[in-house]
Amino acid sequence: MKFYVPILGAFMLLLNSCTTNEKKIPLTANSITTDSLAKQRFFPVTIYIKGQLYSIKEKGLNPIQYLIEGDKKDSSWLKIEDLPSAINEFLTPEIDSTNLIQLFLEKKFVDQSLDAVTLTYEPIKKLPDSLSLSSWTVYIEPETGNVKRIYLVKTKTTKTTQLTWNSNANCKMVYLTSNADGSFVVDKEVKINWDY
After folding, report:
1. Distance CA 24, CA 28 (A)
2. CA torsion angle for 148, 176, 90, 63 (degrees, to 10)?
3. What is the 3-state secondary structure (H, E, C) of the chain?
4. Which residues, 6 or more positions from 156, have their beta carbon under 8 angstroms from its beta carbon?
5. What are the backbone dihedrals phi and psi of residue 8, each rounded to the nearest 5 degrees, phi first?
6. Are the C-beta atoms of residues 48 and 40 closer than 8 Å to each other?
7. 10-residue block means of pLDDT along the chain (196 residues)?
């Protein structure tokens, strides 16, 4: 009997993967309905980062901040109470399902090259000029369900700022300026490490 259970399970998966002659319609901004947007549940990025900040504060270790600006490299201790203000620009707007759901679409896929479930959030229409947040991605470990990394991009005219948040370890902010030809110049990089 135990032999038949795996075979039956595999057969059911095979049947489920075989579809009828349904045409798959590509997802475009015009094909997204209000109902499909209402069903979205964004990962609460801002709450997660604030939780990480609280956890860092509870450890009682001052993070180390590394600054690279042109040819200059510098490092310094960052007071725990100064850490939230160092990343403050990435705490607004609040990234959750309620305030951005009409502007962004979540796409989920398993990225085997990164060994992560990837949640990408990209605009579905022209964003308001007042909103600099242009996209973000959340990487989750498939086995544990723990967040591995968060990547945010904010753009305002020719300036782009990127945040890479590596859970329980560090974060890196890269400040870029775009040129007329579409290339980017790195103005500065700031890395804050709290796992040492």
Report:
1. 12
2. 70
3. CCCHHHHHHHHHHHHHHCCCCCCCCCCCHHHCCHHHHHCCCCCCHHHHHHHHHHHHHHHCCCCEEEEEECCEEEEEECCHHHHHHHCHHHCCCCCCHHHHCCCEEEEEEEECCCCEEEEEEEECCCCCCCCCEEEEEEEECCCCCCEEEEEEEEEECCEEEEEEEECCCEEEEEEEEECCCCCEEEEEEEEEECCC
4. 132
5. -65, -40
6. no
7. 38 35 39 52 93 94 95 95 94 86 92 88 93 96 94 95 97 95 94 94
Structure token digits, residue 95: 């990234």
The first and second tokens of residue 135, run together, are 């996209």
pTM: 0.78
